[in-house]
Amino acid sequence: MLDLTEDQLDRLYKACVGHTGGKNPSCDTVACCWEADRLDLRRVGIELDLQWFYSDAAIEMVTKDDYSPIDV
User: Fold this and answer.
1) What is the mean pLDDT of the chain?
2) Burial label, 58 (beta-carbon count in 10 A; 0-12, 13-18, 19+)
3) pLDDT value at position 7?
4) Which residues have a Cβ under 8 Å from the Cβ of 50 and sit 6 or more positions away?
5) DSSP secondary structure, 39-55, as one string
6) How many C-beta atoms lie closer than 10 Å to residue 27's C-beta?
7) What are the boundaries of each domain within the chain?
8) How high is the pLDDT of residue 26?
9) Residue 10 and residue 58: Cα distance in Å, rounded?
10) pLDDT over 70 percentage in the chain
11) Rounded CA separation 17/61 (Å)
């Protein structure tokens, strides 16, 4: 069982529901989760598409094809 508040559970639900194909995330936390997961798609050979990113940092990484800020 997850020890989450009602608000946290609602946020998690929204993140999961919109995970595949979701746009216009309901909050920065959901946007961050989606971007992190989408940035990881390159690991399995999927080409990243700018339309699915929100933050300037993620857009810059994809545009420049430079993932050194997150490749640790």
Assistant:
1) 89
2) buried
3) 92
4) 59, 62, 63
5) HGGGGGTPPP-GGG--S
6) 11
7) 25-72
8) 77
9) 25
10) 100
11) 26
